[in-house]
Specification:
- By secondary structure, the protein is of the alpha/beta class.
- It has a single domain, classed as TIM Barrel (Alpha-Beta Barrel).
- The protein is built from 15 helices and twelve strands.
- The strands form three sheets. The protein has an eight-stranded parallel β-sheet with strand order 4-11-10-9-8-7-6-5. It has a two-stranded antiparallel sheet with strand order 1-12.
Length: 358
Amino acid sequence: MAESLADYERLAATALPRSVHDFVAGGSGAETTLRLNRAALDALTLTPRVLAGVDEPDTSTTLLGTELALPVAVAPMAYQRLLHPDGELLLAQAAADAGIPYVISTLSSYPLEKIAAIAPSWFQLYWLRDRGLVESLVERAVTAGCQALMVTVDVPVMGRRLRDVRNSFTLPPSVVAANLVDMVTEAHSEVPGLSAVAAHTASAFDPAFGWCDVEWLRARCPIPLLVKGILDPRDARRAVEAGADGLVVSNHGGRQFDGAPASIDALGPIVDAVGKDCPVLLDSGVRSGTDVLKALALGASAVLVGRPLLWALAVEAVDEALGLLRHELRDAMLLAGCAELAAVAELTTGRTPWQISG
């Protein structure tokens, strides 16, 4: 039984091959941004209110027309069968049981239709060189009942993830990009000193992805469109101009540009840039209910939770992990004197000047 979401990585480390653990845990380059995400969240403080008369705080919200029991969605994460044979199916069911959306990755190891049949889902889209395949994926997601489309814009190429390079990481034959089965894949071919997954994405992803493509996508997407990977307020405003219905402030969990700011540090200026009518979600580094509260206090509408749920998946504890997150958020709201999520935005935030270690 885990006492916090952080415990699941320790538990999963004993259950996973070292290369798989590194694939999930690692960041790009020197992993500076990976560490920054946690350091910035740890340094952020909230001043609680007292005597609020709160008995049972309301953690529910509505986002893009969807009712959520928590201001949380499961982040899009690739190849979840690396962690458990049922992979995405098991985590999607846990999300459904928890009353939160599950975001299906383009690189899911089960077909998107099979996942969407289990849980209220959004679909995350990587921009591919094959424009016809992009259009097909959007059509499939809409037909499968996905309630929103989340296009990731911070992966023109995969960041250089040195743990994967050192491990010559490759996918086992049983794990495939199930939504891209017609594409030739290099992800199963081991080459010493190279990441096979990086080679696959280099051949499949289009690095020339631009704002005109977002506008093209908006014109063909009949469901709400979120743009994920925004860190600069100028890009936030441009995304809204291109038709985005929402934004995800994200540095890809420290896995793309190493040296990017912590997502939580980028959040406030982006919320200010786009105004209250545009939902803004936070991704990267969230590890507790208190982290969720901190993001909401800075203006986020909700957060994406990623790695902790993969670690929980590896030890068949995803229901437990989401239940723990729910209890942590409830307790944090009680302690902060917030009866509902709207009250969280009224909390005073501060900063403790801690330094990064490690």
